[in-house]
Amino acid sequence: MTLKRIIVTNIFITLLLIFLSLSGLDPVIKPIDDHSKNLRKYIEANQRILQNYFGEPDLNKMMSNSIRFMVNELSDSTLKISGTPIDTAQIFKSIKTLRSSYETFEQAYLYIANTVDSADMYKLTEEALRGMFATLDPHSVYIEPEISAADQENFAGTFQGIGVQFNIIQDTITVVSAIAGGPSDQLGIISGDRIVEIEDSSAIGFDNDMVQKALRGEKGSKVKVGIVRPGVDEIQYFTITRDDIPIYTVDTSYLLDEKSGYIKINRFAATTHDEFMQAMDDLKGEGMERLILDLRGNPGGYLGQAIAIAEEFFPAQTPIVSTVSRHSRFNQSYSSRKNGSFVDKPVIVIVNEGSASASEIVSGAIQDHDRGLVVGRRTFGKGLVQQQYQLVDTSMVRVTISRYLTPSGRLIQKPFTEGGGEEYAYEIYRRNDSAKNDAIEFVDHIPDSLKFTTIAGRTIYGGGGIIPDYIIEADTSRSAYMINFALRKRASFEFVRSYLDSNGVEFRNKWENNFEDYRTSFSWSKSQLTAFKTLLKEKGMVEKKGLSAPEFKNDSLFIYPGYFDDVAWMAEGRMKAELARQVWGLPYFYPIVNDVFDSTLDEAEKLWGAVDRLSELAAGTLLLDKASEM
Q1: 435, 452, 474: which is the final residue of a domain?
Q2: pLDDT score for 272
Q3: Mean pLDDT across the stretch 171-200?
Q4: pLDDT over threshold 70, residue 4
Q5: Using CA atoms, how far apart are residues 81 and 85, in angstroms rounded to an integer?
Q6: Would you say 323 and 385 are in contact if contact means Cβ atoms under 8 Å apart?
Q7: E-strand spans in 107-171?
Q8: Whether residue 382 lies in the annotated active site
Q9: How far is the C-alpha of 116 from the C-alpha of 567, rounded, in Å?
């Protein structure tokens, strides 16, 4: 690096720091070169932490870790470290301000840039940021530009493209389904179509990333595709005008019986409340009088969306959640702003260890107010709220700005250590295999300070997720070896795709307008199951005598004779669900899966009597000791 460039960089940063110190605002200055852009990126991230982090960040530890991560990424083992600006053995006690933090990092950065010719300073800056964030809580993270764009799209609720769900089978883009109302659907593109050309060039051999880049694009732009359709000899060409395509967060909604509705939400994005209300309106129009809300595996999302959905179950002015931080501007209390659309109707919320954050806000409010039953398994335990901030190169930093408290005042955040992200994330896999024993072990170690009470006086707990009112064990009695093998090899998808290629017209004529009949009456023939077994063998399933249980080895599944027949019902159910997905779309996949596999939902449906007793308890018409029998 030339002396002139170093001087220019220092002048730029000095002016930047003066501007920051005087205004307190984010700078809008055009980067001079790559080094200044990297340095600006680092200072922006540092600034976001200092201005917004819910706790007291340790500037010395942040700096030391930043430099350590940079050095560890270097491949030059001859680089002098001792006594240089990258010597992390030094104690940075003098780092008290953003300015001193930057100056220390700048010295380390420029030392590497001037000493290591092959150093990729962009990647090293990213490593420095990861090191900085590793000193904070597990949910404060640096997000790369590419991941940031996908993350924003995921939670924005829409993307722009042609509107198909696809899978790549034998190097060919295969349409699983055209998204209803999207541009491909409007042109008549259907499940089973193979996209073999894009803009008059072959699309054979494309991977997922190549498909995304080729088919997604700005709204209003056009793309020409060539499609091979089973039963049609010639390639058909479509010119598709890209448009906004919704990303649905309500996986499915349907009636379990004449008056019990079921809604499954996979995350809380910008459109979730609108989707939820549409599902509620549709189900109420079909006669729904009570609801099972499924939040299993829902990792959370937007706080505002969780609040909006929770308030649909409460009268106006009911406390929903509060947030606390060292920054007073992040201290907020949220109550329902109106009378909800489902006040006083019976509610069951299903959760598990994958239910986190916004899911725990909704289920926590339901439980604290004795508004309905929370059933399933102990939730993840994420009680921290994050805010995302964009950096100079469109990368993002996600900074924890506050903790949230349920209406009873409990913090459900589980313990964590700084830098212990992996251990923290995998805590759910170290829990007792028995959900009941896990809850007992958890409660046995809870201090009195983490014990709270519901509106009706029931004891509830903080400090590690939400313990359900009714614990339902995971069904571990069913062997999933073959299903997992089939999914990994995409055997179910391929079998159904081949079935529709040969029988699609006949199938649609009989079933397409009769999903409920399909759900209850369709079954695979013995010859079809035999054909599926043959497909599994072609993909590496081997029958072997002398085995007492199935086992995986070298990407093959070894089973004992008769095992396939024992679990054939599982293969039937999974393929039936896959067939529903390819003909009707993803929302129709779940009713079949739930019918065949979901023992937790089966148990939850038996608890409406307990919901009624809880309502009586909350109304003061049922004694607490009697309610404990629920």
Answers
A1: 474
A2: 95
A3: 83
A4: no
A5: 8
A6: yes
A7: 141-143, 158-161, 164-169
A8: yes
A9: 60
Task: State the SS3 of 517-579.
Answer: HHHHHCCCCHHHHHHHHHHHHHCCEEECCCCCCCEEECCEEEECCCHHHHCHHHHHHHHHHHH
Q: Tokens 């993840």 correspond to what residue?
A: 380
Among 357, 363, 413, 492, the active-site one is 357
Number of domains in the chain: 4
Q: Is residue 612 part of a domain?
A: no
> Quick one: pLDDT at residue 29?
37
Domain with 237, as residue range(s), is 158-246
Q: Does position 57 have pLDDT exceeding 90, yes or no?
A: yes
At residue 518, does pLDDT exceed 60?
yes
What is the rounded CA–CA span in Å between residue 29 and residue 309? 41
Does the pTM of the predicted model rise above 0.85?
no
Tokens of 189: 């593109």
For position 91, what pLDDT does the model report?
59
Indicate if 494 and 460 belong to the same structural domain.
no
**Nearest-10 Cα torsion for 15, 20, 26, 32:** 20
How many other CB atoms are there within 10 angstroms of residue 534's CB atom?
12
Instruction: Give yes or no: 61 in active site.
Output: no
Task: Name the nearest CA neighbour of 165 among 178, 148, 150.
Answer: 178
CATH code for position 364? 3.90.226.10
Encoding tokens for residue 220?
């209003």
Catalytically annotated residue among 382, 414, 489, 576: 382
Contact 238, 187 (CB under 8 A): yes
Q: Active-site residue 357, yes or no? A: yes
- Closest CA relative to residue 576, chosen from 492, 479, 510, 512: 492
Amino acid 578 reads E
pLDDT for 151? 63
Could you tell me if 375 and 399 are in contact, meaning their C-beta atoms sit under 8 angstroms apart?
A: no
Mean pLDDT of the region 555-573: 92
The per-residue b/e assignment along 211-246, b for 16 or more CB within 10 angstroms, e otherwise, is: beebbbeeeeeebebbbbbeeeeeeeebebebbebb
Q: pLDDT tens, 201-243? A: 999 989 878 888 899 888 899 999 999 987 777 888 989 989 8
Tens of pLDDT, residue by residue over 587-616, are: 999 999 999 999 999 999 999 999 999 999
* The domain boundary residue, chosen from 202, 225, 246: 246
